[in-house]
Amino acid sequence: MKREEGSLNTEIKLIVVAVVCAFLLIAGHVILAKSFAYLMWSEYIAAAIPFILFVIAVAAVKYTIKLETKNNIDSSQ
């Protein structure tokens, strides 16, 4: 029972990460719309979004590898 609750929590965390990434993608398209295109801050935000997504992806992969390693150790005992 405890293992199922832990896996549910990790899945919820990864779902939240996916929703944040989707929000960043949508926000990137919105700030490049004509009404925001000529504002100085929109250029910087639009340029930073791919780097933020890359950092989130690397962190998610590291987190998943850590969980898989932990699960493999737990299942072998």
What features would you describe in this structure?
The protein is elongated and about 60 Å long. With 77 residues, it is mainly α. Helix 1 runs antiparallel to helix 2. The mean pLDDT is 86. The protein is 87% helix and 0% strand.
Ends distance:
17 Å
User: Which word captures the global form?
Assistant: elongated
Rg for CA atoms = 18 Å
Strand content: under 5%
What class would the helix/strand composition place it in?
A: mainly alpha
Compile the SSE list and pairings.
Elements: H1 2-31, H2 40-76
Helix pairs in contact: 1-2
Q: Summarize this, please?
A:
Helices cover 87% and strands 0% of the residues.
What tags apply to this protein structure?
77 residues, mainly alpha, 0% strand, elongated
